[in-house]
Design a protein that fits this description.
MLTR_LBD, alpha+beta, 2 domains, Beta-Lactamase, 267 residues, elongated, Cro/C1-type_HTH, HTH cro/C1-type domain-containing protein
Length: 267
């Protein structure tokens, strides 16, 4: 008998879709997960009901997001294995404390916390450098930081290297959508692609920084500020909410930016 989700998708169909998304054959997955190809085939066609242990093992080798592992367990008739707490819940107090320490400790440079769909969750005061001139409709919650960055009413007019920065963000978002198979991210990618931004200059970079990574060059008042960015994730999440969190931190890429941000914080 075929095992189905509440939405009518069988567990075997979900498993097959994720296997194909990862570009794996049944033989590839069966070898990695230590299960016979015949049994895997029976699971995908609904002829065999997998145990929750097998589903979790297959999901691990397919590197499925925790939320999708829960979906597959539900499709198989089992309870979810991973909780989904609100960030404000007592259980996530250590997470909040760690994030707060990162954000506060990064001042006077901008740092922000985003969820799996790039919605702004928290930020330090220095982030107002990027939001102070944005139109109100982009600052209505939930605030999507990628939309805020590339929209003509947001940061885009002040990004000196907009074509380069835009291409970087779009590539990163597309990779994230492909990895998570998340339709929300695919839709966001299509939306952002429609914003103006110009073509990337294919001429080799003339400065040392741009030959190493893509900087954010941002115009503030009459000064051009230059940043490099990093992304911090929780290394061992077992909660769906925590697994989707990321801290985006911006570091000054030159002494002039360092001085400008410290002077701004002091004033």
């Amino acid at each position: 008998m075929t095992i189905s989700t509440r939405h009518g998708r069988p567990v075997g169909e979900l498993l097959r879709d994720w296997r194909q998304t990862r570009g794996m054959s049944q033989l590839d997955l069966s070898i990695e997960a230590g299960v016979s190809t015949r049994h895997l085939s029976f699971v995908e066609t609904g002829r065999s009901r997998p145990s929750p242990e097998l589903l979790l093992r297959l999901a691990e080798h397919l590197e499925m997001p925790l939320a999708e592992r829960n979906t597959m367990l539900l499709a198989g008739g089992y309870a979810p294995a991973y909780p989904r707490h609100e960030l404000s819940d007592p259980e996530l107090a250590p997470v909040r404390a760690a994030v707060r320490q990162i954000l506060d400790g990064h001042s006077p440079y901008p740092a922000l916390l985003v969820d799996q769909h790039w919605h702004l969750v928290d930020a330090n005061p220095a982030v107002d450098l990027f939001t102070m001139d944005a139109q109100p409709h982009l600052l209505t919650r939930p605030i999507n930081v990628l939309r805020l960055s590339l929209h003509p009413d947001g940061l885009a007019p002040r990004i000196v290297n907009l074509p380069e920065w835009r291409a970087h963000l779009l590539k990163r978002l597309h990779q994230q959508a492909a990895t998570t198979n998340d339709p929300v991210l695919y839709d966001l990618h299509e939306e952002l692609r429609g914003y103006p931004g110009g073509d990337v200059d294919t001429t080799p970079a003339s400065d040392a920084l741009s030959r190493v990574l893509v900087p954010l060059r941002y115009r503030h008042c009459d000064q051009e500020l230059s940043f490099v960015s990093t992304t911090t994730l929780f290394g061992t999440p077992r909660d769906v909410t925590v697994a989707g969190l990321a801290v985006e931190a911006f570091f000054p890429a030159d002494s002039a930016t360092t001085q400008a941000l410290r002077a701004r914080a002091a004033s």
